[in-house]
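Internal tracking record. Fields below are filled automatically when a chain is submitted to the structure queue. Please do not edit lines marked as system-generated. If the sequence contains nonstandard residues, flag them in the REMARKS field before resubmitting.
Queue: standard
Priority: normal
Entity type: single polypeptide chain
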Amino acid sequence: MKKGKPRVAFFCLLLPLLILVHCAQEGEDNAPAQCGEFLREKNGTISTPNFPKPFPAPLKCRWILQGTNQSQIVLVFTQYVLLHSLHIYEYDYFENDTVYINKQFIGEISAENEVGSIVSYRNYVVLDLKVTDPTNANLKVDQYLTDYHGFNITYLMLPMKATLPALCSLHHCSYLGNCLVTSDYSKFHCDCFQGFWGSQCHRGPHCDPDSGINSCLNGGQCRYLYGSQFNACECPPNYMGKLCENHLISNKKGHSSSVCSHFMNKSPVSNNSCDPENKTSNCLDEERFRIFVQMNILSRDVFLENMSELEYYRQYLSDQVTLWLENSKLSSADSFIISNISEEKIDFHFYIDKKELMFVNQSLHSLVQDGNLFGIAVNQSQMIVQIKPEMKFLSLEMSSESPIKEGGMLTLTCTARGSENIQFKWFKNGKPLNLTVTHRNAWEIHLPETIQGKHISVLNIDGITIYDKGKFTCEIIDFGCKVNGSIILNVLPLPVVQVDPLSVSMVQGSSQTLRCISAVDKNDESLTYSWLKNNRMFHENDKEIVENIHPTGSHLYIRNAMASTNYTCQITNKAGTSAKTVYVYVVEDANAKSCPSDKLNYILWNKTFGGIYNLQNCPENLASMKKEFEEGIAKRYCNCTEFSCQWEPPNFAKCHWSVLIKIYNDLKNLQLGYMEKTLTEIFENLYTLTVQTKSTLLAGDLDLASTILHVIVKTAKDFPSLLVDQLNIEKLVELLNILLEETLRKTDEEKKELQVGKQLLQLIETLAHFKRANFLNAIDIQFSKIDVNIIILMPNTSDLNIQVNMKTKGTTEEPVLLPQPVLAVHVDQSLIQLMDCNISKKVPSKKLISDVYSYFPLVSSPDAKMNFIINIPHNVNKQLSANEIVYCMSLEKEKLDSSSVTLQQNSCSMIQTEVNQTQCLCTLPGHYTLVSVIRQYNETTSERIMFQVTLFVAHTLCTIALLLVLIVYLKAKRCLLETKNAIHFNFTISLVGVHTVCILCLMQPKKEMLCLCGKMILQLFTVSAFTFLLLDAIQILIDIHARQHSHIIIGTVKFIIIGWGLPTLSVICAIVTLQVAGFDHQCSSWCWWSPMHQHFYSVIITLILLVIGQSGILAFCLVIITQWKDEWSYRDRRKFIFMIGQSISLSVILFICICVSIFSTEKQVHSSKGLVIFFNFILTVVIISFFVLLKKSIRPSIFRKSLIWKKKIFLDLLTKKHQT
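SYSTEM-GENERATED OUTPUT FOLLOWS
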């Protein structure tokens, strides 16, 4: 009994838990079924795990639904996007896969089959889901059903004779809503996504027949069928086709539906004369035809007798033929006109209905029966009859309702009837539309003779802008007549936000009201307003109050301001959202320094605290350009010192004169293809306005004027046909000069925000193109800030890459170096100040000493690169001191698509400097100037000569010493068979080559070809020296490895090939690269690489990589050696440590020599020059010590030779003494 008590207690504790679980299950009758349940409830849902999110895979589930003999099991696929893997079976009885009765496979359910529901009258229904790979397992419908996975199925167990409720599915809801069921599972309905409506979500923004938005013809009803991108037409009886355009003669009931893109949901509906209320009838336009008749006159003499009464006879003949037509089978004929009557022929035409076409020939032959046309003998057999459709303007339709949002697409469809020669022309505001002179995405298509003999012209414009607003006219021309129709296009732009004030200075604890309204649509009640505080939504704790003002507008009330805050007002319409920020500055002290209210330039500047900007709208005669320019805001800074505060001059960089904006709008319309004004007219208007008002132009006006001028020139370059006459180069250069002069007068703060300098530079580059195309009428012009003329330059024949770079694309012939005409443009150096150029950091302590000189060859291709020697004069007020070095610089874009400009030395190098000018070797075309760098001390000519002599002697002594080392190695021939000695021998040869190159350059420092070749040879020997040091490290690693493992054999020849092959490859790569980038023509005192050129960096990077490789190998060797702990390894460890130290010492000293040499070249300091000599001597001494004196394999041979030499001398002395 005692043993059973614990069990009883356990069950007593477990019983309440079981009861709770059971109750919980009872409360979850309608909860979604879990994966693999046995379901007996009357209704519920079955869904994949995580629906509608992705389900895990692989997945295997089974749902078993058990009904009764008196029930039906209904599966409603409310939300089903699975393409495969769900199999459904029905049974009379089911227990498992082996125990069942009457199995029946219903099918594999796929969302593509659009199955809405399944009804089973058996007792069991089994759903088997087996998914191994979820890839492409779900239906994706643009645009709302792209992230649905799996399914959510609703099941119902209803009495056998019960009527099913109205069911739905995703397909039933047009894939634009979810199919939902009420909580009691009695009703199903579509819950549409935002923007769509209807019982089946079949109505939306592009399809709403109740509101007149209907693309279907003949009474058809459009509806969304397969998501938001497609719709279809539900046609009335006897009509079919995508737009219900085809009429069927049939009494069968029903309708057809065809799918079409929603972009065509506004296709044109022709005007007709039928009853507009009879929407389902075959209501077509009445077709009429033009009958043209030409008859040759036979009795010319008889006709000539009546020439005096020609007009009378014309009228008589017209009345007779008209009367005859009314009584003939052509009773519908009208508009009879005799177009020509002469002594040879008669031409006339009239119009009839289509139904009488079959009687035309018969009637006309009866008209001239027996060859008599009311008294005139005509040739009946040669009568010409032409039947053409009547020219008739039918309709002009717009694809979307006006207004159209900015950025949308406009499709205009012009429908007409006429002959095959009918022409369409498009106009905007009465001016021609020319799409061949625009870069915009726009096109016009003429569809000749479509169904019912109609001609259609479709005008498409993608990316609608505010400039497209206006009246579009379609004109048809046929039979020498013109007819047109027009339609008004309204464009819905983004809201223009207007806030007041733009900025405000407040004392802590004060209040302020901020106002926000749409500057354009002030009566538009559809606008919505919202406010942000420091770019976030308002919190519950914020004390600001927002009130909407009717009919439109919003106020923000600030109470008890405590800290500076930015408040942003957002206005939203159908086109989108625009915003503007109000800057609220709060100070604690009411007596804080401030600038008082002041009225200047028609603007009232409010009281502003020190160190703060006051923002105001531009004056009334100024405006702002939306999108192309920032909104028109003027600002003024309150500058406070210790004693007082004073207003700075206003900044009008964002204000633009309305007259200039009108010129810009004309230019923009021309760019879009609207021929309202010619390019020449726009240029003349800009020139006249700028010249007449130059002294009153504000900073923003200059910026806009330069932009207009830049766009004019660019448009003329792209579409020369827009130029009525040649560009007046004198006026163009005068405009450049005015813009440069006036911009320099503006404040420094305004200059920072202007783009005048960069645009002027681009304009200068375009002048050469116009001169090549003969669009410039003059070429020798001088103004105060800019000169333009043509000069003759000779390409530099000594340049290594001239032969390659002068070849143009597709040319195989060698170029001929002839004097080249070059367009030369001289601009004041202030242009660089306006561009705020970044001078390369490689040029320290720099200053500009010349103006900007631009050169553009006119004969060669624009893609050809040629090197010319050009002379750049020094500015008179920029006299050079004796301790200044001059660099030739080029103005280049930082990136291909960037407007940022920097000064570089990549394409220009200095040859020599004189008192008043500097000679540069530059790659044309380009823009060039001079920059001077101050030396740290003034070096006299005698000091320079003395140093060069000293340096020459030092290099010579080092060369002699290293040659002696080589001789010693050659004497000990057997020692060279050892790999290590061979490496040291070649290392010494490399250093001898370096010293030799330096000696040659010191002897001939001004020979350019020797300098260029010397740089390449110097690279070869320098890289080879470091390569052999790397190989020396590799050999040390091999020797260490051979001590404990098998010996690795790498032949001496292979080491030598690598040691010279790698440097040779680097030199070849450098030559190939410099053929494109340009060689380094700057020769320092001993032909060292200039840090201003990329050749220097290519060599330095190679050397650094070699040093890193050597250091890594030697560090690895040290790690291995330190692991040797046994006593017998002590001697070997000491030997290898000495070898590693020797290799590191050589590498460090050699690298220091290179660095000191470069430093002395750039800085020109006495101490650095002395270091060059010192470290070269140190390197030579170290090499003699390591490679000869301390090397046991070489040292005995030296001593042996010495003993033999001494013995020989001693014997010679003895022999002479004996003879004596």
